[in-house]
């Protein structure tokens, strides 16, 4: 199976997927990595692993639809079975989401449906939550709203900063994202009629 990953930044989740592919925990080839930011460290991680890595500058396109259409054309040249969003910090156009329906995953740093959008760690602190975490979900038209596949919880301690929580959450992300990706590439996971199905069971 072939995977294309989209990043905007550090790419620690990309690294976790690279490592999982190299170690045979994910039975797939990382065909290419794309970024909307030329400075994304994730691009360097890809290059270091011998994966074709490209950035597209949104400023070179008239609007979101034009950028997403160009990106989709680049992605489709690799004929991916799965598109993995790994810290890809751009709103996706309707057509882009529709094109990859049922074969695009995202990881979001909260226990969805709590805290879609940005600044999730600070929100968990501000609300005195006892627990926080991360969610892997199928991407649908609703931002951070697609069916959840797997979550990992972490405790929130009294003196935690947002950065403390970020680190605790990311450690879990690096475990659960490769695991979910392995389920998908092994044909165990699908999106049917808006529901995530694993081994024939609704999640
Ligand atoms: C992750 O925490 C992920 O949940 C969120 O963006 C962050 C990306 O981190 N969507 P990295 O670029 O994978 O290090």
Topology, element by element:
Blueprint: E1 2-7, H1 12-22, E2 29-35, H2 41-48, E3 53-55, H3 64-76, E4 82-85, H4 94-99, E5 104-108, H5 120-126, E6 131-138, E7 148-155, H6 162-185, E8 189-192, E9 195-198, E10 201-202
Parallel strand pairs: 1-2, 1-4, 2-3, 4-5
Antiparallel strand pairs: 5-6, 6-7, 8-9, 9-10
Helix pairs in contact: 1-6
The structure holds 5-O-phosphono-beta-D-ribofuranosylamine.
Structural class: alpha/beta
Number of helical regions: 6
Give the overall shape: globular
Count of discrete structural domains: 1
Strand order of the largest sheet: 3-2-1-4-5-6-7
* Bound small molecules, deduplicated: 5-O-phosphono-beta-D-ribofuranosylamine
Strand content: 25-35%
CATH hierarchy, class? Alpha Beta
Q: Give me the count of strands.
A: 10
H and E order: EHEHEHEHEHEEHEEE
Relevant CATH superfamily: Formyl transferase, N-terminal domain
Q: What CATH architecture label applies?
A: 3-Layer(aba) Sandwich
Indicate the radius of gyration in whole angstroms. 16 Å
User: Could you tell me how far the N terminus lies from the C terminus, measured between alpha carbons in angstroms?
Assistant: 23 Å
Round the mean pLDDT to the nearest integer and report it: 98
Uncertain runs are: none
Largest β sheet strand count, sense and barrel closure: 7 strands, mixed
CATH topology, by name, is: Rossmann fold
Question: Helix proportion of residues, in percent?
Answer: 25-40%
